[in-house]
Amino acid sequence: MSNNLFDKFKLGDIILRNRIVMAPLTRSRANNPEHKPTELIAEYYRQRASIGLIISEGSQVSPMGVGYVNTPGIYSDEQVEGWKLVTEAVHNEGGKIFIQLWHVGRLTHPYFLNGELPLAPSAINPNHPIRTPEGEKRSVTPKEMTKEDIKMVINEFAVGATNAVKAGLDGVEIHSSNGYLLHQFFAPCSNTRTDKYGGSIENRVRIMFELLDEMKKYIPENRIGVRLNPSSHNYHGLTIDEETLPTFDYLINKLNDYELAYLHLSEPFTDVTNVPFAEPNIAKRYRKIYKGNLMINKGFTLESGNEIIKNGGADLVAFGTPTIANPDLVYRMKNDIPLAVADKKKYYSIGGAGYTDYPSFEEI
C-alpha cells in the first residue's frame, strides 16, 4: 500500500503522479481589464506541473465575488480563453490542475463592485481591512442576500464549473473556507437569518448542498473538491463558538453522500489550544468522519507530510508558500535539496519578478 508523498494516487478517474498538492495561492497577476489569465500566469503554473495536483488561485465566479486586486475570474468567455492557456501549459508537462471557485461575500469593498454593496448572508460588517489600489479601506455593512440572490450565486458557481470544463481544467474546488461567502453562511456570527438559510445547522449549511446538487449537473462529482477550515478563529471576521464543531461535523458527514474528488481541510491558521470549542487537530478529527479522499494543509514539511500519509491521517498533502520559490518542489523534496525562500514583498506585485523567475535547482 502506498505510504509516502511520492507515490501515485488515484483521484476519482484521474491518476496523480504523486500525493503532493499545490495549495491555492492568490498571486494578483491578472492585471488586465478582463481579469483573465495571461501567458505569464500560464508559465507560472507550467513551471510547477511536476506537482501531483495544482489547485489554482481563487477565481471569482462573478464580478460581485471579487475582493482583491488583479485576481482572475471564471465567468466570461475571455476568462475561459485565458484559462485554456493555463491548462494547455500544465497538461503539456503531464500535470493536473483544478480551479478554485471563489466568492468573497462581505470581504470586499464597493470599490471593487462599481459602488454596489457586497453580498452576504446577513447585513453584518466584518470590520476588516480591504486592500485596494487606492490603499487600505475598511469593510462596509453588506447587503443581506435575498433568496433570489442566493439562487443567483448558486448558478454562478455552476457556470464557473461549466466554464472550467470548457477551459479544459481537470476539476474544480469550491472555496467554502477562510471566512468567504459560503463560510459566512455556516457561522452564526455572520448568519443571523431566520429563513431556510439560517438558524439551525441544517439551514446554515443548506447552500453548500444546493450548490453541489446544481454543479454536478455540469461536472462529475468526482471532479469537484471542497475546501473547509473548521478551526478558523479571529480570521476574516469569523470566530469559533459552541456551534462551530457541530456545524462542521454535520457538514462533513453529509459530504459523504457525494462522490467528491476530495475534501481539502486546513489545520488551524493560528494557535487555538486555549480557544473554547476549537479543534486543534483537524485531520485527526475528520479522518474518522469523512470516508472519501482527504487532503490536509498548513505548514507541512516533507517529514510531517510523509508521516501523515504513512499513518493514514490523510491521502494528499497541500503545500502553499514552498511552491512559490520552488517550481521544482517535488524534485527538491525527493532529493533532499534545501528549499528556496520566497520574497514576500513580491507575492502580490505585477510581472514575473517573484513569480516566474525562481529557478529550478538544476538551473542554479
Question: What order do the helices and strands come in, and which of them pair?
Answer:
Blueprint: E1 9-11, E2 14-16, E3 20-22, H1 39-47, E4 53-60, H2 77-92, E5 97-102, E6 119-120, E7 129-132, E8 135-138, E9 143-144, H3 147-166, E10 171-175, H4 181-186, H5 201-204, H6 206-215, E11 224-228, H7 244-255, E12 262-266, H8 282-287, E13 294-297, H9 302-310, E14 316-319, H10 322-325, H11 329-334
Parallel strand pairs: 3-4, 3-14, 4-5, 5-10, 6-9, 10-11, 11-12, 12-13, 13-14
Antiparallel strand pairs: 1-2, 7-8
Describe it:
With 364 residues, this protein is α/β, with parallel strands linked by helices. It has a single domain, classed as Aldolase class I (TIM Barrel, Alpha-Beta Barrel). It contains 11 helices and 14 strands. The protein has helices at 39-47, 77-92, 147-166, 181-186, 201-204, 206-215, 244-255, 282-287, 302-310, 322-325, 329-334, and strands at residues 9-11, 14-16, 20-22, 53-60, 97-102, 119-120, 129-132, 135-138, 143-144, 171-175, 224-228, 262-266, 294-297, 316-319. The strands form 4 sheets. An 8-stranded parallel β-barrel has the order 3-4-5-10-11-12-13-14. Strands 1-2 form a two-stranded antiparallel sheet. Helix 1 (39-47) links the parallel strand 3 (20-22) and strand 4. The radius of gyration is 19 Å and the shape is globular. It starts with 8 loop residues before the first strand and ends in a 30-residue tail after the last helix. 48% of the residues are buried. The mean pLDDT is 96.
